[in-house]
Amino acid sequence: MAIAKRSVGIAIDFGTSNTVITRWNPVTQQSETLTLPGLSIQQSLNPPMIPSLVYVEEASQGKILVGQQVRDRGLDLKGDTRFFRSFKRGIGANIQGFLPELDGEMITFEKVGKWFLTRIIKELAPMEGGLDSLVLTVPVDSFEAYRYWLGRVCQALPVKEVRMLDEPTAAALGYGLAAQENLLVIDFGGGTLDLSLVTLDQNAQANPKPVGFLLKWGDKSLAEDSKQKVKTARVLAKAGQNLGGTDIDNWIVDYFAKTQGLPVNAVIARLAERVKIQLSTQNQASEVYFNDETFESYELDLNRQTLENILKENGFFDKLHDAMMTLLQQARRQAIELDDINAVLLVGGSVQLPAVQTWVSQYFEPEKIRCERPFEAIAQGALQITQGLEIKDYLYHSYGVRYWDRRHQRHSWQPIIKTGQAYPMSQPVELVLGASRENQPSIELIIGELGAQTGGTEVYFDGDRLITRQLESFATTVRPLNDTENGKKIAKLSPPGFPGSDRIKVLFQVDAQGFLRITIEDLLTNNTLAENQLVTQLT
User: Fold this and answer.
1) Could you give the count of Cα atoms lying within 13 Å of 491 in the half-sphere of its Cβ?
2) Residue 164: its pLDDT value, please?
3) What does the alpha-carbon distance between residue 485 and residue 318 come to, in Å, rounded to a whole number?
4) Over the range 50-60, which residues count as b (16 or more CB within 10 Å of their CB) and which as e?
5) For residue 334, what is the DSSP state?
6) 62/113 Cα distance (integer angstroms)
7) How many alpha carbons lie under 13 Å from residue 425 in its C-beta half-sphere?
8) How many angstroms separate the CA atoms of 301 and 282, rounded?
């Protein structure tokens, strides 16, 4: 008699500083955090985590060291160009600076991230006897390009189904709170600050189809073969900042460089991180470093009050307040006020700082704030979508088209699909265009993914450090999706077009995976020039 093989579900919370892996145990019906020998940090106070570090031994062959392997060999302290950290922040972002060419290979953050995740999954597969289902979490304010990169990395893996879920929603599920509550998740990790207001309820529909920004491969729906009621996590409001624990580390390094003349290097950065972690549990912290070969020595002393002053000088609390105000404004559009939020869940290593917890307590009563699972909640919650969970989500960014603003003599962007749009869309958005000159052979249209209308954040290099900086300009941040010579030509006209009349109709649609697609009809010939075409920059 054949024995049915149990499905192995794995969730990976790929973080800027650390990565957590959880597995669903079908016997105990509980999630458990995994340790990968040699890669995970062995520690008593916190759960097993893999430092998000990569050292490239041979780029052309993809020979790398990852996680704790890098630290055990001291390769994170030498300032070597083969060492990479905080690379998650650079994936899908426009980075100022350059990455080195190693062993004849051009290095990108996307390539480093792919090496890291591929190596982890390669180590996991034999431990689990193969992987049936993999869930990956993504920051709430990531552009589609990041999510699509993550999906492409996993398509080549020997995994039957791959799904994605935003990190704050996963955290809400990981805390396992009661249904029909409004939960605010504050996810403050190494690279990003994400605030997400979600509500959990129960849906008795037997076999619902998955919606929301979940990517998957395989034929089964999320809830197929599930006999239980399907939980639904509905996202009500989102806000994010490109701000994290790595920025705090950099500010501490800059403080010691200014006050003690210490060098800005990898050793001081590591010591700064340790001092910061100590200050999560004690008022005074110190770290000493001595190199018995070069006889160089460093001593860092810091207390909580000084750290708080450092945070204030760098506008830290202003940025936190801006993110909270953005989220609460969105919540009010849903008729939800501050008092309507039932619980506040703190996740990510940076939430352990007393200064962060004090900031949260300015808005909410202590009994509403929970911080007992800062590291594991995201990965454990993500596992639930393998257990019959439906996620309903909406677009965090708007999509728009570029036009020439004659009044201000500059290009601007007109939103066509606005933030908050549920997807897949039930009805497409229609745009009619005409030719602008005689005998026009084609019509061009640049489509962009629009960020929030804030000061924006610039990501750039300062030596070997990846830095974020708040911009003063309050223009909308835009990621063009098809701004290439061929990509922006959305329709070839035959016969050529002439000014004075409408020529093409463009239908914009967002599919179940959150990708923008266009259908183009020629109004003169009644021909379909493109049908359900994926916007080129996402491919």
Assistant:
1) 30
2) 79
3) 41
4) bbbbbbbeebe
5) T
6) 12
7) 22
8) 13
Q: Mean pLDDT for each consecutive 10-residue tract of the chain (539 residues)?
A: 50 91 83 92 81 94 94 87 88 68 91 93 80 79 69 75 78 74 88 83 39 36 35 73 90 95 89 92 90 78 96 95 92 91 92 94 94 91 72 68 82 82 82 90 87 50 52 62 82 91 91 83 94 65
Tokens of 154: 């996993």
One-letter amino acid of 6: R
Give the CA count within 13 Å in the CB-facing half-sphere of 304.
14
CB-based burial, 91-113: b 16+ in 10 Å, e otherwise: bbbebeeebeeeeeeebebbbbb
Tokens of 83: 């060492």
pTM of the model: 0.69
What phi and psi, each to the nearest 5 degrees, are found at residue 131?
-115, 125
Q: Quick check: 396 and 371 in contact, CB under 8 A?
A: no
Question: What residue has token string 């953005």?
Answer: 326
Token reading at 244: 């994290």
Q: Tokens 């404004």 belong to which residue?
A: 329
Q: Is the dihedral of CA 120, 172, 381, 161 positive or negative?
A: negative
Structure tokens at 152: 């492409």
CA distance linking residue 311 with residue 279, whole number of Å: 13
- Closest Cα partner for 161 from 238, 220, 88? 220
Residue 497: closest CA among 465, 525, 478:
525
